[in-house]
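Worked example 3 (structure in, sequence out).
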């Protein structure tokens, strides 16, 4: 599904965030990535999503190099295959919650139907379809963003601290929904998190450090 080859990213000559990183994410695999602050976890997701560009190396989706795609083809690929859950919610303020959630379906040229309302209900926002983002708390906006990321059943889900603004009980329900959607749709997923509860929902736990991505140690797994 996803292959990273010798990926390197620096923000200055003295600040190399990712160095010669290699990793292959198999179809249907759900992994959690943990690591110290500033090690490059969010940068890695931005690179995979095409929101940033590596200094060197290659990112392949289903064997296709992202660098070889023109803007139109890259945009089409992201719309059809990716679901993004990032710390900045990026809700459109002039659209209702249901309209915000429906966007990925509409951009794919599909009829929205009842799926957006069903996803809002799944994240605990039933009856709020016609509200606007300005009427929401930060945690509620995060739940709308999660519903939007999942609504079109993407093949690859990228999530950056998806429960960072949620209380523990709400977070647990959202994590169950996330895992259920991933498994029901045969999706691959990468979740970047500081939360051990969130990491525990994944199939595998990886640690990102300056030495690259590696399977978490037994001690790290035992704390989850």
């Amino acid at each position: 599904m996803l292959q990273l080859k010798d990926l390197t990213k620096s923000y200055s000559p003295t600040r190399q965030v990712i160095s010669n990183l290699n990793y292959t994410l198999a179809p249907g695999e759900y992994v959690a990535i943990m690591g110290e602050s500033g090690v490059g976890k969010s940068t890695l997701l931005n690179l995979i999503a095409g929101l940033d560009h590596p200094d060197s190396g290659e990112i392949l989706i289903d064997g296709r190099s992202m660098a070889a795609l023109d803007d139109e083809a890259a945009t089409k690929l992201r719309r059809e295959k990716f679901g993004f859950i990032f710390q900045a919610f990026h809700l459109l303020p002039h659209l209702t919650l249901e309209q915000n959630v429906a966007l990925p379906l509409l951009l794919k040229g599909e009829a929205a139907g009842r799926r957006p309302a069903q996803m809002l209900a799944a994240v605990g926002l039933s009856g709020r379809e016609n509200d606007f983002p300005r009427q929401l708390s930060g945690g509620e906006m995060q739940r709308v963003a999660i519903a939007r990321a999942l609504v079109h059943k993407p093949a690859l889900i990228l999530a950056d601290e998806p429960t960072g603004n949620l209380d523990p009980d709400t977070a647990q329900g959202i994590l169950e929904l996330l895992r259920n959607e991933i498994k029901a749709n045969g999706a691959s997923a990468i979740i970047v998190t500081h939360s051990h509860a969130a990491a525990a929902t994944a199939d595998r736990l990886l640690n990102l450090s300056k030495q690259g991505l590696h399977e978490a140690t037994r001690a790290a797994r035992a704390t989850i």
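Notes: The radius of gyration is 17 Å. The mean pLDDT is 91.
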